[in-house]
Amino acid sequence: MRVRVDPLVCEANGVCVGLAPEVFDLNDDDELEILKPDVPAEEADHVRHAVRSCPKAALTLEE
């Protein structure tokens, strides 16, 4: 599974960071960074929840 962000849509609300902090982070410029684009199996459920919870629908999954 691979997760991607559309930087033109993302508002860096940080919902995904709160739900999957091992995969997502906000940098010093308040831009979303994906720490593990190839999602580890143990984080898959958290990342799916984060993608569904993104208020701007800026995250996508490729499974």
Task: Indicate the topology.
Layout (H helix, E strand, L loop, with lengths): L1 E4 L9 H5 L4 E3 L5 E3 L9 H10 L5 E4 L1
Antiparallel strand pairs: 1-4, 2-3
InterPro entries: Fe-S_cluster_ET
Pfam families: Fer4_13 (PF13370)
GO molecular function: 3 iron, 4 sulfur cluster binding; metal ion binding
The low-confidence runs, each spanning 5 or more residues with pLDDT under 50, are none
What's the CATH topology name?
Alpha-Beta Plaits
User: Which class do the helix and strand fractions yield?
Assistant: alpha+beta
Average pLDDT, all residues = 97
| Total beta strands | 4
Please give the largest β-sheet: 2 strands, antiparallel
CATH class: Alpha Beta
Strand line-up across the major sheet: 1-4
How many H/I helical runs? 2
Order of H and E elements: EHEEHE
What portion of the residues fall into strands of 2 or more residues? 15-25%
Q: Judging from the principal axes of the Cα atoms, what is the shape? A: globular
Distance between the termini: 4 Å
If you compute it from the alpha carbons, what radius of gyration comes out, rounded to the nearest whole angstrom? 10 Å
- Overall structural domain count: 1
The CATH architecture designation is: 2-Layer Sandwich
Indicate the percent of residues in helices. 10-25%
Organism: Actinomadura montaniterrae
Keywords: 3Fe-4S, Electron transport, Iron, Iron-sulfur, Metal-binding, Transport
Protein name: Ferredoxin
GO molecular function: 3 iron, 4 sulfur cluster binding; metal ion binding
